[in-house]
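To the team - pyridoxal-5'-phosphate complex, inputs and output below.
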Amino acid sequence: MKLPIYMDNHATTPVDPRVFEAMRPYLTNVFGNSASRNHSFGWEAEEATEKARKQVASLIGATSKEIVFTSGATESNNLALKGVAEMYAEKGNHIITAATEHKAILDTCKRLEKHGVRVTYLAVQQNGLVDLNQLRDAITDKTILISIMHANNEIGVLQPVREIGKIAKERGVLFHTDGTQAAGKIPVNVLEDNIDMMSISAHKMYGPKGVGALYVRRRNPRVQLTAQMDGGGHERGMRSGTLNIPGIVGLGEACGIAQAGMAEESKRMEYMRDKLKDRLLASLDEVYINGTMEHRLPNNLNVSFAYVEGESLLMGINDIAVSSGSACTSATLEPSYVLKALGAGDDLAHSSIRFGLGRFNSEEEVDYVAGKVIDVVKKLRELSPLYEMFKDGVDLSKVQWTAH
Ligand SMILES: *Cc1c(COP(=O)(O)O)cnc(C)c1O
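Output:
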């Protein structure tokens, strides 16, 4: 086993060696531009993108023509939201999303609000899931789009996309989902799940950074988008710019590998994740799991360790790469807005750790991580007067602290 251990696979994943091998020719001698129609260099590139398009489509139950290649999920989210807002402006100006979305959705919504779009940010329940009745009530005759993510990048909870899509369909509203954390990890079928648009990113599923896709439904209904990038009219006019052929080939291969190995891999993830969880809960008290375990990615564990400071904990386990609920959003020490949305206090949000397991983690690593975290939490609590008071049965909520 080699240190440091990487267990932050929601932030990014390493490129699978098989993906790299598939990309290699397109970084060297097969360099054509897929838009070159009149020679074999162009044809080869075109063939490679169409193979990748099929692989991406197949992973999510779509057809090739419904896949638009982009630079990643941030761009896909921007294209979906801005593209719909602009295209359907005559029909309405209201978008519904949730408070726990990724910044690529929330910041895009904020931008749209400056341009006259009204946005409803649904609160989530304590388990992290949106309330479908609240969603139904939020829909008006001006609503043009619902955008709710499939799997959350911090707490891994899975929103009820199939039901959300059904509600959207019944009310004649388009449904976009940020599927970045879900694609390649759990089964997704855009037809069965009533999804009209879905964003995905290669680097969250063992592909390269800087490439992704947006699924755009072509039938029942046919979704139209106003392009946000003008140029040569690539990607059926929806996203101009010379295609990133090596990246696209990598994304396609990553999708193919994920689809072939998903059943087995998700079982392995779940086994290791549960082992980690069970060991932490067995050896430590005052540990809180953030978000429901029932509807959750198999590779995610997000826990708060009460009476421990997140930053000190991270420092204590500095040979393990994970994320904390305070360092997540930029360099500020704001507690995670996702955990706050679940109703966590600042203290518990600050003391949280996100473990993101991945394809290249071993059981030995999981054992090491569990042991190390238990060790460090115990040591930090030995130094914590609050923990001592808690152990002595003092009700901390009733203590009068001196103001300073
Ligand atoms: C990583 C991530 C994004 C951004 O994807 P990029 O490809 O890095 O732009 C968007 N949404 C979610 C849920 C993510 O996890």
